[in-house]
User: Which sequence fits this backbone?
């Protein structure tokens, strides 16, 4: 595929539709993420028969974690669809499957009604959710970035990260509202199901919005030039190498974000003994600040580059994570909020860079497949275990700073990888194939490179 396609003209109204249709699925994903976390104890009591509340909670969280294991597989499936059939088709399927699976949790009978079939079905549904979520983030990022103006790709992709924070805030607020409106008996009986059922109408609206869109200019260029291929046959050695690099930076991004979005709330309330409402308020305020910072991080990367932004994010967390934990350990609301705010600055750089770099990093023919595999290997099995590892380290060592040491070590390791291997991508053409150093290849060179990789 050539590197200088005829430009596709996209008016402002069409771009607004793209933004809304793309972000709605991402919002729903993180809404569900927050809701499940906040009603985990009720889900444990509903679907697992043990009389031990701790065992029920652990079983519920284990089921929650199952979805992370299926994200790489989902990334490969939906990535293939996006590269071979179309970006829009991949996004439409992802939101349908995700919304239906989430809504089914809201009507699933508990253990008291259908016995062991209840937890079995819950696990199966969470696996399906994991598959669809594996295609949502990278699919949404690719769709948005491929529509974005070249000089604003970082700014546009920042909306993905900001929407994740807003989804978590909305999910938490919904559970908080229901908990304060309904009696405990009603909340345990049917109230917890309401947020999951909301996924169906949101999904229908999202599907309608996505199906009204044209596919991205990049994919239309692929279609016009007859460039659609089986992405698995064209990844090659260079693509595998880049998948491993993407795995590294996604591991750092995901672990840092899951600390921020889930672990810190429990750390403040359980380890540092903040009152539960105060811990929730701290988490909410810091997520609002983070959502505001994301566009600033995207604009910064548009001006100075993705590579320096990523390295600054990793280095920032490596240097500041221990002071952040010490501020949270002060017992004072203001100092804890200051610590979370400092963390949000570095984490916003990481998350925004992940959503834009994963698109720019891979050539268009294999972009969704290779990017989704690398990204989901990092944010799935590795990052998804981050909060559990953090809690286990505190329990095993008794050292309240042990999670900080773990995160610091991870950030240092990934920063070294990025300094050595990550090329700058912010000036790349999204239409052109590239070699490992980021140099554009013309059509003949691209075919030769692919042939060499497959000898």
Assistant:
């Amino acid at each position: 595929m050539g590197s200088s396609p005829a430009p596709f003209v996209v008016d402002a109204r069409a771009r607004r539709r793209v933004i809304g249709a793309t972000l709605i699925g991402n919002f729903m994903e993180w809404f569900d993420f927050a809701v499940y976390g906040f009603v985990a104890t009720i889900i444990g009591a509903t679907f697992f028969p043990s009389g031990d509340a701790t065992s029920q909670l652990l079983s519920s969280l284990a089921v929650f974690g199952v979805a992370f294991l299926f994200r790489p597989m989902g990334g490969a499936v939906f990535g293939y669809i996006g590269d071979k059939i179309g970006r829009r088709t991949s996004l439409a399927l992802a939101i349908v499957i995700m919304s239906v699976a989430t809504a089914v949790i809201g009507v699933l009978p508990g253990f008291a009604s259908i016995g062991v079939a209840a937890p079995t079905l819950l696990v199966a549904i969470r696996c399906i959710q994991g598959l669809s979520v594996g295609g949502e983030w990278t699919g949404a990022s690719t769709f948005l970035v491929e529509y974005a103006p070249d000089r604003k790709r970082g700014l546009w992709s920042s909306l993905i990260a900001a929407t994740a924070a807003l989804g978590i805030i909305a999910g938490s607020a919904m559970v908080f509202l229901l908990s304060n409106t309904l009696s405990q008996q009603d909340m345990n009986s049917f109230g917890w199901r309401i947020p999951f059922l909301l996924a169906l109408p949101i999904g229908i609206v999202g599907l309608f919005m996505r199906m009204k869109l044209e596919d991205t200019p990049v994919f239309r260029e692929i279609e016009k030039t007859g460039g659609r291929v089986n992405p698995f046959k064209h990844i090659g050695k260079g693509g595998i190498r880049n998948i491993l690099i993407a795995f590294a930076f996604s591991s750092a991004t995901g672990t840092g974000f899951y600390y921020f979005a889930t672990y810190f709330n429990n750390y403040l309330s359980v380890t540092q003994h903040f009152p539960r409402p105060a811990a929730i308020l701290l988490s909410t305020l810091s997520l609002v600040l983070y959502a505001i910072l994301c566009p600033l991080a995207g604009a910064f990367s548009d001006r100075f580059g993705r590579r320096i932004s990523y390295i600054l994010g990793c280095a920032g967390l490596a240097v500041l994570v221990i002071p952040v934990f010490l501020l949270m350990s002060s017992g004072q609301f203001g100092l804890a909020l200051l610590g979370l705010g400092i963390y949000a600055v570095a984490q916003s750089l990481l998350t925004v860079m992940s959503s834009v770099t994963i698109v720019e990093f891979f050539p268009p023919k294999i972009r969704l497949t290779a990017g989704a595999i690398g990204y989901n290997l990092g944010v799935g099995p590795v990052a998804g275990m981050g909060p559990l590892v953090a809690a286990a380290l505190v329990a095993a060592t008794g050292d309240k700073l042990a999670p900080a040491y773990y995160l610091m070590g991870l950030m240092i390791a990934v920063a070294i990888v990025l300094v050595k291997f990550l090329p700058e991508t912010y000036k790349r053409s999204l239409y052109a194939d590239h070699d490992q150093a980021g140099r554009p290849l013309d059509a003949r060179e691209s075919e030769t490179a692919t042939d060499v990789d497959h000898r």
Q: What stands out?
A: Residues 12-453 form a domain with the Growth Hormone; Chain: A; fold (CATH 1.20.1250.20). The chain has one domain: 12-453. The first strand starts at residue 433 and ends at 434. The chain is about 80% helix and 0% strand.
